[in-house]
Specification:
The protein has about 400 residues and is of the alpha/beta class. The chain folds into two domains: about 160 residues, Rossmann fold; about 220 residues, Vaccinia Virus protein VP39 (Rossmann fold), CATH 3.40.50. About 35% of the residues lie in helices and about 25% in strands. The termini are far apart. The site of ligand DWN has 22 residues, from helix 10 and helix 11.
């Protein structure tokens, strides 16, 4: 019997991509953000999914190429795929602004990107992009027009798709017999270790463990054969799959090591998530304490990086414009807007102004890049605030 058990209620949340045009919007959409443990597959998911069309539309704000860290990571991965597998064709599911696919102009490269504003960018770059949601129907349409693929890559996208069974079946369908599917998504074990509960929001229907991925994909005849641990996005896994029928590719030792480590950590036990839930509630209390103290001391506090993730923190901890004067963000489509639910203005990044004393790290996952860039702020005594791995002033 499939059992789904709720272990954390994060309250009411808006659509994280809904950056607002004004401070007092009418009819802003909210949903209940709850987290669920699936006892059969050991998956962790949201309790209720938000309609994909509400989230992924032609006003999608996030640009994968916005950070140097990610531009470098995608360029390195492209070289490594080319050197190791020498593919003749590649398909990317969730191609965003083409930051990865642009490295494959010499071979058959195709994108799938349901956010029409983004698909337009890559189509203009000469990368054929289907502006549709990934499905078996689309997989068959692409096969009819372009054939199957040597490599299918998908970063920070599969965790956003509700129907995993159809998703993986369609990936199997679109792969050549010797083809490889590479998935990259935030790691559940890292999320638990870092108490980064902001990995959960409308778009992240799932945060994957290797155990859950192993359990789900075997039904689609896909098999994990290699795993790379990444620092990106607060700790991610790059997981390589082959068709189960392909015996030429050997399963590496790390795969068994990851499965063993996760089991030892308790990824498959409800008690692990109950403990996480208690830690998250404590984190909320302590973060609010920091902001209240700074407010009382009349400090000038801003936000740095109006991330989708930070929406979970701001709305769960009721942090609004009373505590954070404004956010700075380098993404042009977020400039002049307000953060969803918390209604904090977002300003164009032109360096941190001299009067700012504290900056809440919405983009804590880019801490190293940001600390390097903001030496002037740090040297003049400016401090960052982060809730990861626990609420603190850095
Ligand atoms: O999975 C997802 C990830 C990959 O991207 C999506 N569901 C949505 C989005 O989530 P996010 O907003 O939490 O992602 P990032 O990449 O952590 O966002 C970083 C934000 O911070 C961007 O808006 C750019 C901004 N930024 C900045 O203003 N100055 C980033 C850096 C590094 C900077 O120096």
């Amino acid at each position: 019997m499939i059992k789904k058990i709720k272990f954390l209620d994060l309250g009411k949340h808006p659509i994280t991509n809904n950056f607002l045009n004004n401070k007092n919007p009418k009819n802003e959409f909210f949903y209940n953000l709850k987290l669920i443990f699936h006892t059969d597959t050991k998956l962790i998911s949201l309790g209720k999914f938000v309609s994909p069309r509400k989230m992924f539309n032609n006003k999608y704000a996030h640009r994968a190429s916005a950070s140097k860290t990610m531009r470098v990571a995608y360029s390195k991965l492209a070289s490594s795929i080319t050197n190791k597998y020498n593919p003749k064709s590649i398909l990317e599911i969730g191609s965003n602004d083409g930051v990865f696919l642009k490295h494959f102009k010499k071979i058959k490269n195709l994108g799938v990107e349901p956010c029409k504003n983004l698909a337009k960018i890559t189509n203009r770059m000469g990368i054929k992009t289907y502006d549709k949601f990934w499905s078996m129907k689309l997989s068959n349409e692409i096969i009819n027009q372009n054939g199957r693929f040597d490599i299918i890559y998908s970063a920070n996208t599969i965790s956003h798709i509700h129907n995993l069974k159809e998703t993986f079946n369609a990936i199997y369908n679109s792969l050549n017999d010797n083809g490889i599917f590479i998935l990259e998504d935030p790691s559940l074990i890292e999320t638990l270790k870092k108490n980064s509960y902001d990995q959960f929001y409308d778009e992240h229907s799932y945060v994957f463990s290797i155990i859950a991925l192993h359990n789900i994909t075997k039904e689609s005849n896909l098999e994990i054969f290699r795993i790379e641990k990444l620092k990106t996005h607060g700790g991610s896994n790059r997981v390589y799959f082959k068709k189960s029928s392909n015996k030429k590719i050997k399963i590496t030792k790390e795969v068994f090591k990851h499965l063993k480590n996760e089991k030892k950590f308790g990824i498959d036990k409800l008690s692990t998530y109950k403990k996480f839930s208690r830690k998250v509630q404590r984190s909320k209390k302590n973060l609010i304490k920091i902001f209240k103290k700074l407010k009382k001391e009349k400090k000038i506090v801003i936000g740095y990086g109006a991330t989708y993730k930070s929406s979970t923190v701001l709305n769960y901890c009721n942090l609004n414009n009373k505590y954070i004067d404004y956010f700075l963000d380098t993404t042009p489509t977020k400039e002049g807007k307000y953060t969803p639910g918390s209604h904090i203005p977002i300003l164009k990044y032109k360096g941190i102004p001299n009067n700012v004393q504290f900056a809440y790290l919405g983009a804590w996952n880019f801490k190293d890049e940001i600390f390097k860039k903001e030496k002037k702020f740090i040297n003049r005594g400016g401090k960052f605030i982060s809730h990861v791995p626990y609420p603190r002033i850095i």
